[in-house]
What we know:
4 helices; mainly alpha; elongated
Amino acid sequence: MNVKEALKILESAAADGNDDIKNIFSSDYQNLRKAIMTSIPYLAWEKVKHAKDASVYFTVDKAKMLDKSVHKHIWCYIGGASLIAVSVGFLLGRGMK
């Protein structure tokens, strides 16, 4: 019997009786319980590292796309930034009176 078959048996047993599984793991299978509990933080850390790598890749990819877009349509971005700056300046200057 390999590990996959054993896990399938455990899954079906867990669906039938939750309390029985808790009793078995608390008394009989201490080594298996220790192995499972020590591997959980490692798996969580691997998922965090994968999420970090994916977010860094996504951010760098979007920054490169924005850089290309700004270089391609430079006057649109300059005009948009100027319009926003004038609007904010007007609103702030009007509120000072």
